[in-house]
Amino acid sequence: MNDIELLKFIENGESSGLEFKEAKVHPISLAGEIVSFINLDGGSILIGVNDDGEILGCNYKKIEEFVINICRNNIKPSFIPYIEKIKINNLEVLLLRIPKGDTIYSTAQGKYFIRVGSTKQTPTQQELLRLFQKRNMIQLDEMPIFQASIDNINPKLVDRYLERLGLSLLDSENEDTLKIEYKNLSVLSSVDSTHPSLAGFLLFNSNPQKVCPAFGVMAGAYSGVDLSSETIRESDINGTLSDLIEDTIAFLKLTIPKMYTMDNDIVRKDNYLYPIAALREAIVNAVAHRDYSILGSGIRVFVFSDRVEIRSPGGLSNTLTLESLPYRQFARNQNIVSFLSGLGYMERRGKGILKMQKLSAEKNIECSIQITPDMSEFVVTFSPKK
After folding, report:
1. Do the domain assignments include residue 131?
2. Structural domain tally of the chain?
3. Of 62, 167, 176, 336, which alpha carbon lies 20 to 30 A from 128's?
4. How far, CA to CA in Å, does 256 sit from each of 62, 93, 233, 370, 383?
5. Is the pLDDT of residue 330 over 70?
């Protein structure tokens, strides 16, 4: 970076990707700023510039060594930063570029920080949980549901799953044996085996929304192109994940445009504008891959006059991008994916996105995928090609 580029950089002021620090910055303060960047999307720190954007320079001769020692000794795990020295008006500024981390970082004192706007903040428990989940450092669907017990698991639903896999059914008469079988199946949590895992609870409890209200589907059909238009039909869909999939598809069949034809002039056949198999794939993906650490919102399905939207809470996992998503497996919730695969709803090979796009193209339907600007929702949209 040259001096002209530096001046333009500073002119924009501090932001979610840029922080100013004077050369006399305290090691603990600088470590916290670095941690806040590396735990989210990375960023840059200019050392030798005050909060008002005034260039003061770095008079300390060993400033580079000072920064490297902080990165190695005051941050856990340690890392080696990219450092660039820039001279302007006989003053030297240190540019510290910080990448997005592939793990979760803390200060040597064990404190976690994230970047919020132009400041570092201590993450809430929920935000910290999401950070660990995005880095695949924990599997949220293995975590225990403390409000539930083994009695909240319906053995008939588990038997239905085992029967489909061709495995022996449960020994429901023996409580000790039943507990071992549930634990081996990951129906009980590996963290605390006295409680169901999130995956087991969502698949094998008839009404998981009683404990987790947001883990359902909100579905709506509207006469126009947005939510302000006349409501045709709305439904809050609850039940097991299998129920959510089947009942959401039933809702879509009731509300998406269709026309009728007669096979051999005898049997009436429904021809839907949107391919049902592609819609089913999108619903299954939403149920399987949503971010279950987000407790305040559920899956939302909208039928508008010009499109169908399927929205699931959360962005992408750590290393995934929208470009790589169709070709890579997206397994945020590995146990849920395993259960849904065993029940016949999805394949383990991770080809759901390609399948949706292919089925849509065959019916002249555009299937687009995006993340909302605030990274809060993963959105699949089906719309007729113009």
Report:
1. no
2. 3
3. 336
4. 67, 60, 11, 22, 11
5. no
Are 191 and 272 within 8 A, CB to CB? no
pTM beyond 0.85, yes or no = no
Structure tokens that stand for 18 in this block:
């840029």
| Residues 289, 320 within the same domain | yes
Spatial contact of 281 and 356, defined as CB atoms under 8 Å apart? yes
| Tens-place pLDDT, residues 89-112 | 888 899 999 998 888 999 999 999
DSSP helix/strand/coil, 70: helix
Q: What is the pLDDT of residue 137?
A: 65
In tens, the pLDDT along 146-185 reads: 899 999 999 999 999 999 999 999 988 888 899 999 999 9
Has residue 324 got a pLDDT over 90? no
Whole-number Cα distances in Å, 299 to 37, 83, 174, 247, 331: 30, 43, 38, 13, 17
pLDDT at 268: 67
Parent domain of 160: 140-210
Phi, psi of 172 (to 5 degrees): -70, -15
The residue out of 123, 158, 179 marking a domain boundary is: 123
* Domain boundary, last residue among 151, 185, 210: 210
3-state secondary structure of 271: strand
One DSSP character per residue, 82-98 reads EEEEEEETTEEEEEEEE
Under 8 Å between Cβ of 2 and 86: yes
pLDDT score recorded for residue 273: 92
Is there a single domain that holds both residue 75 and residue 206?
no
Fill in the DSSP letter of residue 71.
Answer: H
Q: Which two tokens stand for residue 265?
A: 């002039």
Residue type, 106: S
Q: Is 132 a member of any domain? A: no
pLDDT of residue 382: 97
Same domain for 47 and 14, yes or no, is: yes
Of 228, 212, 99, 87, nearest to 148 by C-alpha is 212
- Rg (C-alpha) for the chain, rounded Å, is 26
Q: Among all chains, which residue has been given the structure tokens 């570092």?
A: 120
**Are 45 and 71 in contact, with CB atoms under 8 Å apart?**
no
| pLDDT value, residue 132 | 76
